[in-house]
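Researcher: Please predict.
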Amino acid sequence: MPQSPFRHDLLHGKVALITGGGTGICFGIAQELARHGASVVLMGRREEVLKEAVASLHKEGLKAAFVSGDVRDYGQAEKAVATTVATFGRLDILLNGAAGNFLCPTDQLSANGFKTVIDIDLLGTFNMTRAAFKDLKSSGDSLVLNISATLHYQGTLMQAHVMAAKAGIEALGRNLACEWGEHGIRVCAIAPGAIGDTEGMRRLAPMGADKKIAAEVPLRRLGSIQDIANAAVFLSSSAASYITGEVLVVDGGAWLIKPALVTREMWEKLAAKSPRA
């Protein structure tokens, strides 16, 4: 386990509800929030996965529970919030991480396929956030943290459905940051880039593409789940108490890069021929 850059009790007393928290990036975030003193409730549709995830947190001596549910159903969103408050007495952090994705050219994308991703990502974020409003307001110092992406900052082939959903999540977050700030509720997002050892990379990146992607990232590596979890701990802490409405991009600078029209080799040859100042 890598040494944390944060004080171990940074989030002592905080309670977090994490959707999609049984696996991947969202489990990694839940783990780090708990390691820094928060009590966490994991939400997802697969109860056995949630049980295993909570058991692994308990082995570390961390405070954790789970509630099964589908973020597309507002009633189940309300149940998840109520279970969290009944279990740990309050709700301070809502992490909206439940998401769906698959590769598909837009001219082959069905209306149902598009709707499914919108419903899980965007509608699910609204359902959970709206259901949590009363308890987040009661906290007086709370955070809604949405997991976005960088796909919609430029065009991304075969990802129209996800780009639409994530763009909507960011727009919704900015609106709520303005509306709910007076209640002590901050609303932020994290936009991960290519994160190694995740289901997303296994599904969406062709075999061997991880090395090519890493070579094109300015920091010359893929991100890690720990990178995203560290960003979440920061935004959940008092160090970020005056930050709201922001999207923190954690991608090693990858979204800034466009495909090179001139290769490095060509540029070096041109530079060698250019007169020196």
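Model: The domain at 15-273 is CATH 3.40.50.720 (Rossmann fold).
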